[in-house]
Amino acid sequence: MTTPAARLLDLTRLISRAGRTPTGIDRVERAWLRALIAEPIPVFGLIRTNIGYLLLDGAGLAALDMANTSGRFGTASGLSRLSRKASPATRAAESFARRHAIARALPFALGPMLKRHLPSGTAYINVGHSNLTDRVLTTLRTLPAARITVMVHDTISLDWPQFQRDGTPVDFRAKLTRVSRHADTILCQSNVVREDLTRHLTQMGRCPPIVVAPLGVDLATPDPATELPPDPYFVILGTIEPRKNHALLLDLWPDLGPAPPTLVICGSRGWRNDAVFARLDAHPPGILERPCLPDAAVAALLANARALLFPSFAEGYGLPLLEAAALGTPIICSDLPITHELLGPVATYIDANNPVGWLREIRNAAKKPRLRPETRLVPPDWWAHFKIALSVT
Questions:
Q1: Sign of CA dihedral 164, 170, 173, 174
Q2: What confidence score (pLDDT) does residue 21 get?
Q3: Mapping DSSP to helix (H, G, I), strand (E, B) and coil, where does residue 82 land?
Q4: How far is CA 299 from CA 15, 235, 331, 373, in A?
Q5: pLDDT of residue 370
Q6: Contact criterion met (CB below 8 Å) for 51 and 106
Q7: Mean per-residue pLDDT, 210-216
Q8: pTM of the entire structure?
Q9: pLDDT of 249-263, one tens digit each?
Q10: Between vectors from CA 159 to CA 147 and to CA 193, what angle results, nearest 5°?
Q11: Residue 48, SS3?
């Protein structure tokens, strides 16, 4: 593929989620920002705000990366104060981006702004599922020799709508339809997602080329100062949402006896899970909720746990699985195509709807001495991801 004259990375999601605990998709967008800054090809950043669009050059992106890492965006000022629905952190991040932008445009002037500053043959890259609007994609199509690459992380919104926020499946279908119409290349992180995407996009009428580039894993060094529960304990890592199936473990834990091992729940509270939240608020025996921990503390908890428990109903990838496997932590997880693709023989697999099987394996892991897997999995790294991804963008 011809080397692009420049790359334009959409950073709308990164700015909109400033100040919040990063999700897996947030980490991917951050990794792309850092990788493209380091590339010799000129790089620009596009950010949609509630007022309009901002365009940053490489120097502005480097400053944004430093501010995002430190969390120090300064205070919100000027136009950002008008974004009443945005959080204070998002308003501050927008102000920071506005100060470092080389150009700004109201929505109707997006095209002229991009044509003034971007060279012919620019490659637009969106890895965050945000800003995939008709306005942006059709405008990009008017730029000379522009290419559009979109990363789609999964199709869970369409395949498991019962676990989504209201309106999410409809919104995601609309986005995927636009991707079908406009994208030159689609990136995804697993063969399972590629198969799901092919199925949906074929039904939509056009399936652009899909390239699998497994995501890298950022391995934090366990913090020795982290306060650990007494042994034995288990960890479940991820947003507390219905798809992650925390309810299964809450149902099982009373069956582990009057002095059960500790279950450490690492993750922020999500959506459509009021019954689970109410049970957590009652502080059931053996259950410890630890949201918003630093990565090094999570790594310490994982490294010393009897096992990572991962009873999810559906996944597009599974960064917690790879992090645990890299640390040598035993894994008990749902019997899903993606978990087999990622872990092979490293994990113990149980159907997410088999509480008897889960109870058996948890009891066994709690009673036996903690054993490391015979083979420690070496997770994918970002170098390998970008070697594939940048060759097609």
A1: negative
A2: 82
A3: helix
A4: 26, 11, 14, 17
A5: 67
A6: yes
A7: 97
A8: 0.93
A9: 999 999 999 999 999
A10: 45
A11: strand
Same fold across 6-217+383-392 and 233-367: yes
H-helix or E-strand spanning residue 361 = helix 355-367
Range of weakest confidence among 5-14, 24-33, 152-161, 371-380: 371-380
Q: Token pair of 206, please?
A: 């056009």
Annotated domain spans of the chain:
6-217+383-392, 233-367
* Residue 30: both structure tokens together: 């951050």
Long-range contacts of 276-285 (CB under 8 A, 24+ apart): 276/240, 276/242, 276/246, 276/247, 276/250, 277/240, 279/250, 280/240, 280/250, 284/250, 284/253, 284/254, 285/253, 285/254, 285/258, 285/260
Q: Taking the domain 6-217+383-392, which CATH number applies?
A: 3.40.50.2000
Domain 233-367 superfamily per CATH: Glycogen Phosphorylase B; (3.40.50.2000)
Contacts 24+ apart (CB under 8 A), 80-89: 80/49, 82/50, 82/51, 83/49, 83/50, 83/51, 85/50, 86/16, 86/50, 87/18, 87/19, 87/20, 88/19, 89/18, 89/19, 89/20
Token digits for 37?
Answer: 């800054």
pLDDT of 84: 64
Residue 274 C-alpha from the chain's centroid: 23
85 exposure class (CB count in 10 Å sphere: 0-12, 13-18, 19+): exposed
